[in-house]
Design a protein that fits this description.
heterodimer, A: about 70 residues, mainly alpha, about 5% strand, B: OB fold (Dihydrolipoamide Acetyltransferase, E2P), five-stranded mixed β-barrel, 13 strands
Chain lengths: ~70, ~350
Amino acid sequence: MSDKSKTIEEKMNELREATAWFESDDFSLTSATEKFKEATKLASEIEHDLKNLENQITVLKQSFEEV
Amino acid sequence: MDLKLSVSDFVGLVNQTFDYAMPSVVIVGEVSGFSIRQGKWVRFKLKDEQSSVDFFGSIYQMTTPLEDGMIVAVQGRPRLSDKWGFSVSMQSVQAVGEGSIKRSFELLKKKLEAEGLFDESRKRLLPELPTHIGVISSTEAAGYVDFTKILNARWGGMKVEVARTLVQGVRAPGQIIRAIDYFNKLGEPPEVLVIVRGGGDADDLAAFNDEALVRAVASSRIPTLVGVGHEIDTTLADLVADVRAATPSNAAQILVPDRRELIERAWNIVRAIVPKMERRHNEYEREIGDMLAAAEQVVANRLVSYKDELQYTLKLLAQYNPQTVIARGYALVIGNIKLGSIIEIERASDVIEAEVRNVRQK
């Protein structure tokens, strides 16, 4: 299930942070698999969110003809 | 029965008839006798092979520069003035025909350039990911269809408000200006204003060289993106916009990222984790190998040390062995040392029994 409370930008930032963790001093082999799973889940959510985004197009009823 | 009217009543009746029959009319012809009086009032005639009509207006209604010989389309209202006779009161004007349009374009471009309207320093950035956009176009036009098709394919989740206007002809600039004004006055205006129109000939695109329209685009407080015509077409509205798109499709490409690229980027980030994990894993392996090697070395060093110590101790023990002392020529006395007792004296080659006959203190 996609987390609706976060925007795509927030999820992209989380994904970047997750990647940075693998380069950081906090890296541990014990947590690596879990972190990789989290990153994969985020990428799946981003894909799902993006594919399902639809624009709401409204053609205004106003006439811009000179009165 | 004939009507009998005063002159003023006749003028009033004629104007009333014009208002009813022709509230607004567009007349095309060649400009002659063009003049500006008192820096404000514009007079000229439009003529063709047979006829000539007077036009009157102010420079504020002169939406394109005029010169004698230019072919123009003037939108106006026929009026009979009580002092000046018949003329058409000009509301807007547009050059017609390639030669006139080009000349008008060059004159206006020069004027607006001198005012700094096309300066790069005036250009504003468009929002990176807009959530609310205003579109001004004709919803029936191919350019609008192209724009929305590409926009929807590339990105979603946006509120798109579309102001339907004419995009060609003398009435188009006025409608587009009012649409720009409408969006700018909204309590929650869009983050970007997109004006699009597909390709066409010089006459079709002439609306986008209208001075009032160009100034409206320039003074919009909402950043503007203009995509008019094909790649080779340039209008003054393009030049004055914050961002110019080559075509309506290109406007959509400029406005929003492609969701497919972003999805690919997200998965590329994930894929990039794998070599990072491998590298960190190799680092751990190398570290463990180094530690094991160091431990082995410590054990080896300790073994050598223990061996040396053992040999030394063995040597020392050998030195302390009584047999070693006896072998060097000394004798070992065993027994109770008191007068009369029998003791044994061990030497390297024999053991002597002896009696203690005297014990003398040293």
